[in-house]
Amino acid sequence: MKLHGTMKINASGHLEIGGCDTTELAERFETPLYVLDEAHFRQNCRNYYRAFTEKHDGIVIYAGKTLLTLAVCHMVAQEGLGLDVVSGGELHTARKACFPMEKVYFHGNNKSAKELQMALDYKVGRFMVDNQYELKLLGRLARESGVTADIILRLTPGVEAHTHEYIKTGQVDSKFGIVIENGQALETVQLALSTEGVRLRGFHCHIGSQIFELESYSHAADVMMRFAAAVHRETGWAPDELNLGGGLGIYYAHGDEPQPVEHYADTAIQAVRSIAAQYGLPAPRLMVEPGRSISGPAGSTLYTVGAVKDIPGIRKYVAVDGGMGDNPRPAMYQSRYEALLANRASEEPQETVSIAGRCCESGDMLIWDIKLPSPQPGDILAVSATGAYNYSMSMNYNRLPRPAMVLVKEGHADIIVARETYDDLLRNDQVPARLQEKQKVVKLAR
Ligand SMILES: *Cc1c(COP(=O)(O)O)cnc(C)c1O
User: Fold this and answer.
1) What are the b/e assignments for 46-74, b being 16+ CB within 10 Å?
2) Dihedral sign computed on CA atoms, order 98, 101, 103, 107
């Protein structure tokens, strides 16, 4: 397993993260346990801030859907980044964490009137408008509230990033955004420019996720700026903001080769500036929305090994006390992960095994065919790069309580999400009075 961030193997041969021995974390907080490496998370934020904001006056907006808790909001705000939210729930989290609302960007392809109103009341920085229905609805709500909403139109540039089918979002046939090539985008710009209650500021696109080829971004910038030039010719209006979305790939497992953030920034900014110059437009302010590349590598999950089942000549299954409930990605996307035995981290891997989750689904397999030093019941398995789309996608299938999350730094470990209890699982359950009457036994006639 590649060691991420502050990870190291200590003198006892245990995996350490943020100066904390992970076997002690497992003992103290129980497993499964999400561990977030604070120094690593902040470093990832800073890399973006330096590369885009300090160097090019760009705006970096953390994609909250990857991992959002109150503590995470505090760190993101302290690092000077903006925040993408996609729902009333994420917006509420930002608000409760006192996140500066002018730095909040509200995304989503079907925001409800209630959510839009909430965002207007909170005065979020930008509404990322996905479609004409939303544009009209937002315009009406803003007029009724006597305010003007700053908006950015989400467009589909028709760029397909080379990535997994489920996480390609920039192509024409997509539920997200407005299509450029068939004229709908231009029509929507005209509608936006004539809609009272909204002020059009720029364009957005998001071409996919887990992207390793930076040319995908220059290609997208090219399509977007070409469109901006066409809009300028038609309407005389030009965007002052261009948001190129997120999607920078990270290292999960062998074969993943992430690009450095500085290259990403330089590639994107150069593409935008040169094309703007070519069309005689002022270069718009560049915005990016990284999620996975900030939170992903900073998170790990600790599990305890339980049943080990060998099917001779076929496969050895090593079952852990979590699985698709805390990490649905392998089941959803066939995602790959790396892992090691945290309590025997310096031992040589000599056996190929497969890591099974504990849910009642054959598809609940965390890792197929991984080399480990012969796992035994009671060993602690650490899976790396689980910071993004794990806790945020977690669920209570099989009525498994969601794990706790600890934030580790320089030997300190603090709970930032408490472990769910069995009673938490019942919190919203209700039993109608008629079911509480003495149960009648209905005998079926034979
Ligand atoms: C998911 C998403 C992001 C973040 O993507 P990552 O791959 O996690 O960087 C950014 N913007 C939009 C619109 C998204 O849907």
Assistant:
1) bbbbebbbeebebbbbbbbbbbbbebbbe
2) positive
With 0-12 CB in 10 A as exposed, 13-18 as middle and 19+ as buried, what is 444? exposed
293 lines ligand 1 (CB under 6 A): yes
pLDDT at residue 162 above 90? no
Three-state DSSP class for residue 65: helix
Q: How far apart are CA 81 and CA 99, in angstroms?
A: 10
Tell me, using a 6 A CB cutoff, whether residue 158 lines ligand 1: no
In short, whether 66's Cβ falls inside 6 Å of ligand 1 is yes
Question: Residue with structure tokens 């609805």?
Answer: 137
For the chain, give the mean pLDDT: 95
Q: What tokens appear for 77 in the block?
A: 């705000």
Q: Which atom of ligand 1 is nearest to the CA of 247?
A: 7
Give the pLDDT band of residue 172 (cuts 50, 70, 90): confident
Residue 388 C-alpha to ligand 1 middle, in angstroms?
11
**217 touches 244 (CB < 8 A):** yes
CA of 412 to the centre of ligand 1 (A): 31
Kindly list the distances between the CA atom of residue 177 and the CA atoms of 52, 218, 224, in Å, as whole numbers in the listed order.
25, 19, 13
pLDDT digits (tens, 9 = 90+) for 313-357: 999 999 999 999 999 999 999 999 999 999 999 999 999 999 999
User: What mean pLDDT do residues 56-63 have?
Assistant: 97
Over residues 173-192, the pLDDT tens digits come to 889 999 999 999 999 999 99
Atom number, ligand 1, closest to the C-alpha of residue 154: 13
pLDDT for 436 equals 87
Pocket flag, ligand 1, residue 44 (CB < 6 Å)? no
**What DSSP line would sit under 138-206, residue for residue?**
HHHHHHHHT--EEEEEEEE-----SS-GGG---SSS-SSSEESTTSHHHHHHHHHHH-TTEEEEEEE--
pLDDT digits (tens, 9 = 90+) for 355-406: 999 999 999 999 999 999 999 999 999 999 999 999 999 999 999 999 999 9
**Is the beta carbon of 154 within 6 A of some atom in ligand 1?**
no
Report cis status (omega within 30 of 0) of the bond before 258: no
Nearest atom of ligand 1 to the alpha carbon of 245: 11
Q: Is the CB of 157 under 6 A from ligand 1?
A: no
In the numeric block, which tokens belong to residue 125?
């920085």
Question: What spacing in Å lies between the alpha carbon of 90 and ligand 1's midpoint?
Answer: 14
Distance CA 330, CA 337 (A): 8
231 forms bridges with which residues in the sheet?
none
Determine the distance separating the centroid of ligand 1 and the alpha carbon of 66, expressed in angstroms. Answer: 8
What is d(CA 96, CA 127) in angstroms, rounded to the nearest whole number? 20
